[in-house]
Amino acid sequence: MSSPLNKESYHPPWNPSPKINSNGFLNDYYSRCPGEWEILADIRGKHGPRNHNRYMKLLNIPVACRQVPGDGNCLFHSIASCLYYAEYNNHLPMNSFECINTLRSKSLALRNAAVDILQNVQNNGHRRLFLQGEEYLEAQELLSAAAAQFDLENKEYCELMRKESYWGGGPEIVALCNYLQRPIHIYELIPTEEVVATPSSTPSTTTNMNEAYNNIKVSNQFTLRRMACFGSPKFDRKEPLHILSADSRFPDVEPRRVRKIGNHFLALFPVNTLRHGLDDEISIDDSKQQRFRRHAMVRGGEGERQRSTRADSRVGSKRKGSKVQSRKREGRAVVQLLSDFFGAFLALSSE
User: Fold this and answer.
1) How far apart are CA 344 and CA 332, in angstroms?
2) N or C end of the chain, less CB within 10 A?
């Protein structure tokens, strides 16, 4: 547990950086590209590769990136920040002690909602939770896989997850997209030079963008690659929330030194969804501050100041084969990927 936030400790509550303004917005915008898994996954719906117009928007429309406090609640902070904008068409301020406490209250509500969905008491854990495409898991299967990874009973896992500062990850993201009935798309941070140079995956530069985006400063160091489209196409009637799994040192880290496994979440806002005439205090342009992997489920928590050796894990599932055998097959796949990514994080934290 991190220490309670107080007025004396607010400076603000993330790593100070000249690249981040007082409300957490990074000065640069970032290009996006699809994951290598997407074409083979063949996800239908508004946000899948079958929809050419939407798919090209992923490449052509940059995103604004917003930092959130690194206090162990970053997953819920980032989703709360995105959800607030989606519901009120306005950004949740983060430039004061009182604003951060408001954010923490909203994040705690999301945390409890996620655990409620995983426990699914009213249906004895049999509620189907949609992942992406045609894939799903029952709540009890997803909860059991997550708990087993940490050698915990289901009840113990839920008790810990209800506590502030306990790292949230893939199971909680899946639970929340089903709770909100809204897609949650996850991106990973990669050096731009590592983007596969193909017509379908190369991010557009400012010279190729729509004229409306020509004056936008896009980072030439990092690109955000989509890892998963949880909730699509099941909940595509609502615009997705976008979050980034990144190195907690980002944006103050060189591309060649960035950790391959993210341990912190940030909120993302596609530029075409941003309201014009933002309050100067919340504006991104504040002049005062200048492998084939599918269904990867990441886990993130503290920032650099409050780093710990908690397990950063990802879980996933194989594509459904026969409808009769799908649930058992998916459950086994989740456990296997949890194990793989957990081992990777242990190797990283021991460096």
Assistant:
1) 19
2) C
